[in-house]
Design goal:
It is built from 13 helices and eleven strands. The chain is an alpha/beta fold. The chain folds into three domains: about 5-165, Rossmann fold; about 175-280, 6-phosphogluconate dehydrogenase C-terminal like domain (6-phosphogluconate dehydrogenase C-terminal fold, Orthogonal Bundle); about 295-360, VC0802-like, CATH 3.30.2130. The strands form two sheets. It has a seven-stranded mixed sheet, with helices on both faces. Helix 3 links the parallel strand 3 and strand 4. Helix 6 (about 165-190) crosses helix 10 (about 230-250). It comes from Streptomyces inusitatus. InterPro entries: 6-PGluconate_DH-like_C_sf (IPR008927), ACT-like_dom_sf (IPR045865), ACT_dom (IPR002912), NAD(P)-bd_dom_sf (IPR036291), PDH_C (IPR046825), PDH_N (IPR046826), Preph/Arog_dehydrog (IPR050812), Prephen_DH (IPR003099).
Length: about 350
């Protein structure tokens, strides 16, 4: 791949352009808002000048509602050898293209499974896709050359290709992406009018659950409008679990001991099912989830403190597998949770304690 055209310079389009441009591909940028394309170009994602001729690959990175229209226009203009979209739903755009009776041999659907709460070109990074799954949904008509161009794009972005049926993809993302966004927003909405005293008690748990609630509502309306059925199906199951849980909680308030015991059993069942589901979420590098030990370190809010912790851990020869920071409300301090292999936890805690760190395990 020597040349590419990115249509839509939001987070995903600009990030792909940055990755391609950084690896020597000549990238042309176009957006319905010329200022966004100019911003992406200024960031080093390519040029907002039109391509002088046909490019190798056109990447359509516009909202799902406009994906088929943008693809059809590009294909009719013959701007590329191959055409690929990165919309977060796949079945709808494909059916729209089929209804237009276009030759789809030059087209392949795709969806990089990565993103941020922030949107727009200024949120883009060249490493956004590194190590992340990038779904491809070829049709029976997709030409081998176009599939190879898509695989090259994924390789240049250092992502991991996953081939799926378009409708199976939409059901999958309804479960692992679209429904979590709605549930996160629903929980965060409970905080809007909560008493200030309650809000001041917010800890890491509520921060984890509501992190993605900061996402752009307009963007998510577009996404959910394109995949309403599968999301509604998942929410129906969650609603049934919620009804059961509410009944169980009410039973815990009953003066009847048998009802209370039944309620506790039902609550425990939901929590255990949650344990089982969480255990299936892939861990580091997409492998089976690992059971890490947590070494907690009290840290002051001062420049260089995190670097000092990692440096001290490195001297002990311990690899930090993951890290979380739990901030103390109203205090210039927090708790850093270092996740390490169980065999390394005791030695790391002892080493850090010797170096003056306050350890909480």
């Amino acid at each position: 791949m020597r040349t590419a055209l990115v249509i839509g310079t939001g987070l995903i389009g600009t990030s792909a352009a940055l990755a391609l441009a950084g690896r020597g591909v000549t990238v042309h940028l176009v957006d319905h808002d010329p200022e966004r394309a100019q911003t992406a170009a200024a960031l080093g994602a390519g040029t907002d000048a039109p391509p002088p001729g046909r490019v190798d690959l056109a990447i359509v990175a516009v909202p799902p509602a406009y994906t088929a229209t943008a693809l059809a226009a590009a294909m009719r203009d013959g701007v590329a050898r191959g055409y690929l979209d990165v919309a977060s739903v796949k079945g709808g755009p494909r059916r729209e293209l089929e209804a237009l009776s276009l030759d789809l041999s030059a087209y392949i659907g795709s969806h990089p499974m990565s993103g941020k709460e922030r949107s727009g070109p200024l949120a883009a990074t060249a490493d956004l896709f590194e190590g992340r799954p990038w779904v491809l949904t070829p049709t029976a008509a997709t030409d081998t050359e176009v599939l190879n161009l898509a695989l090259e794009l994924i390789a240049l972005c250092r992502a991991v290709p996953v081939v799926m049926d378009a409708d199976a993809h939409d059901r999958a993302v309804a479960l692992v992406s679209h429904t979590p966004q709605l549930v996160s927003s629903m929980v965060a909405a409970r905080l809007e009018e909560a008493d200030e005293t309650a809000v001041r008690l917010c800890g890491q748990g509520i921060r984890d659950v509501t992190r993605i609630a900061a996402s752009d509502p307009a963007m998510w309306v577009d996404i959910l409008t394109a995949n309403p059925g599968p999301v509604a199906d998942v929410l129906t199951g969650i609603a049934a679990d919620l009804d059961e849980t509410v009944r169980a909680l009410r039973s815990l308030q009953s003066p009847d001991e048998e009802r209370r015991l039944g309620g506790a059993t039902d609550i425990g069942s939901v929590l255990r099912r949650g344990n089982a589901g969480r255990a299936r979420v892939p861990g580091k590098h997409g492998t089976a989830p690992a059971a890490y030990e947590i070494v907690g370190v009290l840290i002051s809010d001062q420049p260089g403190e995190l670097a000092r912790i990692f440096s001290d851990a490195g001297r002990e020869g311990v690899n930090i597998e993951d890290v979380r920071i739990e901030h103390a409300t109203g205090q210039q301090a927090g708790l850093v949770q270092l996740m390490v292999e169980p065999s390394a936890a005791a030695s790391l805690a002892a080493s850090l304690r010797e170096r003056g760190w306050a350890i909480r395990q």
